[in-house]
Amino acid sequence: MFIYALEFKVRDYECDLQGIVNNAVYQNYLEHTRHEYLLENNISFELLHHQGVDAVVAHIDIAYKTPLKSGDEFICKLYVRKEGIKYVFHQSIFRKVDNKICIKAKVEAVVLINGKLAASHPQLEELVPLEQ
Hints:
The protein contains 3 helices and 6 strands; from the N terminus they run E-H-H-E-E-E-E-E-H. It is α+β, with helices and mostly antiparallel strands. The chain has one domain (4-125): Roll (Thiol Ester Dehydrase, Chain A). Strands 1, 2, 3, 4, 5 and 6 form a 6-stranded antiparallel sheet that branches. Strand 5 (101-113) and strand 6 (116-118) form a beta hairpin. It is elongated, with a radius of gyration of 16 Å. It starts with a strand and ends in a 7-residue tail after the last helix.
């Protein structure tokens, strides 16, 4: 089901006073994974932006399951679906040592072309697997 994976390691400064990754940091992991997925598919956010095309997050839902701690290695995985005008990224983070799920997220993104909501963009359509 997942079509892309990226490995990370928790850095000390990403943790809160409880010694676990701060909840907001997980969004950075998710976003970095989405951006790397785009780059691996030869899509540059910067180039698209200069063409007047911006993919922006419209909604995100995160379920926190198991906390990560400093030094933990983990894998962020994703798959993407097209639902109407939205690109929906389903992402999960797994701790490497035991493959335990840490978070599950659903990230909904929309496309703006010259500041106006658009149904899609040809380059972004290539990201969505055909088996929908």
